[in-house]
Amino acid sequence: MSLALRERKHDVKLMLLAELERLTRHVNATRSFQTQSDLQDAVDDICELFPSLKVEEVLTAFKHIRQGRYQLYGNFTTNTLLDCLRKYDMENTVTMREEEHRHTKRVETGALDVKRLIGDLNRDGKLKTSRKLLDRTFIPYPNDTTDAKSTEQHKQQGKEKEKTTAQPARDTEGKA
Fold this sequence. Notes:
By secondary structure, the protein is mainly α.
């Protein structure tokens, strides 16, 4: 309905208005829809409240009302018409769309063990940190395994450098 209204709004509304007029004459509801503006308001309400219905489906619902499949209880107003369209929508189109959706959207899901996947990727060496390790001018993350190992290695290298630079100075002091 929404696509048809976008393409040919005037023609669609005119056709629905003609069919609604025919329907009101058939069910003898001339007291309920007294003026042409009442019929136009009903068509506007149909277009606004049922944009997902096809135009053919609205016409089929009108046919079902004419055939007496929906009880009118002596009056035929806009609210009664909208209730009949809702019933038609629930009985026919909603179940059909759900069935189509079930057939086209069959998705199988499986459980994924994320911890095992991360462990396997780490073991294979395929999981790396996203940032480049330069000269350690950034602050390391305490929970990152790469940062923890590299900071320990960096500390050990720093201690070794201090020992090597401090030993020659002591040796020269001892000889003097």
